[in-house]
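tool=predict chain=A
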Amino acid sequence: MYDVAIIGGGPAGACCASACASSGLKTLVLEREKFPREKVCGDCLNPMAWSVLDTLELSSKVQECTHTKLEGVRFEGMHGCIVRVPFPETSRPKIGVSRSTLDQILLKNASRSGAQVIEESPLTELVRTGSGWRIQTAADCFEARHLVAADGRNSTSLRLLGLMPERFNGERVALQARFHSKTPLDNDVVLRFVDEGYLGLAPVGGGLANLCLVSRPQNLAEIKRRAVAEYGVPETLAWRSITPLRRAPLPVTRERLWLVGDAARVVEPFTGEGIAYAMRTGMECARAILADSPDLYKKRHADLYRGRLWLNHLARQACLHPKLGTAIVRTGALLPGLMALLTNKVLSAR
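tool=predict ok
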């Protein structure tokens, strides 16, 4: 009998596991894949993640791995309109780092903290019991008092429990790949609106660029052709994909069930906050489990998103309607202080 079983070893699950195990809880992490593994992601670590890395004593380790200190963001509208916003100079900057590198650091830390980590262990069944949960994988069966769903926007846990929200009609698809750029990379993130959707380019160190394309399914072929023509992406490059990019939020706690990261709430990837939200919610969930207080997690989860979701909604509308996104960029060119204010709101490390 485990105190806590966590489904998913990504940033949310690994941070939750580290906090639970280091506090003395018998903790299990079940991860369906073998790490290191790649993940569809913009590979940008928001400054609000540093407080979690400090708590886990991992800040130095992350700073030592291959990464890029990001210096600004360049918004590019259609028809050549460009606005660049420099990031504030700080010892805790926004960085570009590959998910395979970051996730491996976080999951190994969970294991060092005392959690039992079992990889290549896909979930097949979840059953409530009088004392908590029975968890069936392809090979084994486990029991735990608390269950944490940390397996993302397409959570197997939620599907097995009948809790997965219905998808919105006309949902977009994200494609992501890394490639060695033929031209020197600067240290800026590039976010570009195009007719088919938008493109996001971020340097992640070692001469590698992370390129994300977001479009509706019927426009994917065209936006890929654009990426090949304008960024020199090899035509044979293998792309990873993910959908949906939005999903209705769910209550973050039920009886002995806790939702963290994208399993609870999905935010528009354009803002680059997803990893930080995952890490922060994982830590807050662990604290609430230790305090045996679902209400504490509900409050802290709500506090984390409060005051930021309006910006996420604005970003989603701009991405759904590239002409609107371009209009915002043009407004930013006339009022650079406004664009800086919006960008710094995203970067705030509260």
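The chain has eleven helices and 18 strands. The radius of gyration is 20 Å.
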